[in-house]
Amino acid sequence: EPEVTQTPSHQVTQMGQEVILRCVPISNHLYFYWYRQILGQKVEFLVSFYNNEISEKSEIFDDQFSVERPDGSNFTLKIRSTKLEDSAMYFCASSEASGDNEQFFGPGTRLTVL
Amino acid sequence: GQSLEQPSEVTAVEGAIVQINCTYQTSGFYGLSWYQQHDGGAPTFLSYNALDGLEETGRFSSFLSRSDSYGYLLLQELQMKDSASYFCASTRDYQLIWGAGTKLIIKP
Lengths: 114, 108
Description:
The complex is a heterodimer. By secondary structure, chain A is mainly β. Chain A has strands spanning about 5, 10-15, 20-25, 30-35, 45-50, 55, 65-70, 75-80, 90-95, 105, 110-114. Helix content of chain B is about 0%, strand content about 60%.
């Protein structure tokens, strides 16, 4: 069964450093998303991506964040200068279509900023 | 603003039926999704309602009333493996807006 994969599973970084979180969405999916979940809290939308551009982003997704699809399979989230409050689980998801379609989530990357 | 309200915790007995409610206030509402998340795991899709009424998928059913901005997830014949957090999420264009989640505790 196809699945979304994410690497690394756990990333530890120093405050102010740049991190890149990687995702491989399901191959025939067209819509890609990043979400984050601070420990014990709800899942929060960050950004959606379609046709090589951002479709929508939340207020969390400020200038420190960027996304890219560098090739036909990878989808990355970059945080330019990490802050302590960026520590969270970051989930990548993909779907065949927008709106009402099921989103498939990857296993997540736990980011710890020290 | 956009918000979804659901109880923080529900406790039930193995083999019983439990209902998790969700009320929402969102603009550009397409439908209501339900996701399950086990501790330390990724959310997994359970069901989606775009229209009013009941959708049934095995032991799980989901209901939506657009006029009441309300939905619920019904879990029947509870099993210990159903112990997890359950999130309602409103679908809107390119994103899911999530509720805070309901932790379902199942006792033997």
